[in-house]
Design a protein that fits this description.
Helix content is 35%, strand content 19%. It is of the alpha/beta class and 353 residues long.
Length: 353
């Protein structure tokens, strides 16, 4: 078996999209009426409390599925600050993005968490495309939608990007100055990792993997089978043998404790053509908004936050906040670490929105 610490660069040939989706259908069914899989999730909308509203909108001809959270006692005639929440790679709006969106709504913000185009419940073909330009456009699109939502003060718009969504957030805010305050949590630089391997473990195979991606693109263009990278499913034994915290705990989170049929570790191999020459930390000097970057002190992905943070030379203000004792995935769900992050976000957004 390949070393699972770098398994997201392995190749899986999938006969059909139905086979991919069948893997998701095998996951434990969720009981929440809104299909939310995080602890403390809303189970029904009640007057005077935080509410959740499922919405859809068009972005470049694709149907985007999103959840909007409104604060307790929401009154559409008032004006509220808003926060866009971008989900992790492999994640969807019902997981950690929804958890943070709900917690921020509890603090008085209108929040939106949307599934990326080509992923989750959003439209787009081929499924599980992971193009950085599309993921960045998703964040612009959430801003388009939420700034027109009843009760939102468009001049007080913040953003929170988690994991891969954090990397795409850094790119989006470099040019989109509607965002007045920028925060990331456990930022993951998708381009750097797909290019160099996690912790620079695959530098020797860059050209080989680009060749495979090129062949996958050619096969896809010719109408052949779509080739996927990543893990469609994994056994408990394989999880236990995974050597890195990121992937071992990630498999537990996405395939066991917080599983959802719409969430998958798969992405099209052809996506590497766009990912491998992209870098979240490029042009960081374009960020002039206040910047907060948060990471677990024990996260094996912390080096990516450190690299990007150092390059943010023109941020109006910037702070690197370490969540003491947390690994990357633990910041997604573990109550004491989520609370640390939310408390920091509370102060940050209050000061800058």
């Amino acid at each position: 078996m390949k070393n699972l610490s770098i398994v997201l660069s392995s190749v899986l040939s999938i006969t059909s999209l139905q086979e991919v989706e069948a893997q998701g259908a095998q996951k434990s069914p969720h009981k929440n009426p809104y299909s939310l899989v995080y602890k403390g999730a809303i189970t029904r909308n009640e007057k005077g409390k935080v509410n959740i509203n499922a919405v859809t909108y068009q972005l470049n001809g694709i149907d985007i599925a999103a959840n909007v959270y409104t604060p307790a006692g929401f009154n559409a005639t008032r004006k509220y600050p808003a926060v866009v929440v971008a989900h992790p790679n492999g994640g969807i709006k019902e997981q950690t993005a929804g958890l943070y969106a709900q917690r921020l709504a509890e603090l008085g913000y209108i929040t939106i968490a949307a599934d990326a185009a080509y992923q989750g419940a959003s439209g787009g073909q081929p499924r599980h495309t992971d193009n950085p330009a599309y993921r960045t456009e998703d964040i612009h699109g959430m801003a388009d939608y939420i700034t027109r939502y009843s009760g939102v003060d468009a001049n007080r718009l913040g953003v929170l990007g988690i994991c891969g969504g954090g990397g795409y957030t850094l790119k989006a805010v470099q040019t989109d100055k509607r965002f007045k305050a920028v925060a990331t949590l456990s930022m993951f630089n998708s381009g750097e990792v797909r290019r160099n391997g996690f912790q620079n473990s695959q530098l020797a195979t860059i050209q080989e993997r680009l060749q495979k991606a090129s062949e996958a693109r050619a096969q896809q263009a010719a109408g052949g089978e779509i080739i996927y990278a990543g893990m469609a499913s994994i056994t408990d034994e394989e999880i236990a043998k995974t050597t890195t915290d990121l992937y071992r705990e990630g498999y537990e989170y996405y395939y066991r404790t917080h599983a959802h049929p719409n969430s998958t570790f798969l992405y099209t191999m052809s996506s590497l053509l766009d990912l491998m020459n992209w870098d979240a930390a490029a042009n960081m000097d374009l960020i002039d908004q206040p910047l907060l970057m948060m990471a677990g002190s024990k996260a094996d992905t912390k080096y990516m936050t450190d690299e990007a943070f150092a390059k943010a030379s023109n941020a109006k203000s910037k702070e690197l906040f370490l969540i003491d004792g947390a690994t990357h995935i633990q910041t997604y769900w573990k109550p004491e670490y989520v609370s640390q992050a939310v408390n920091k976000l509370k102060t940050f957004y209050q000061q800058n929105l």
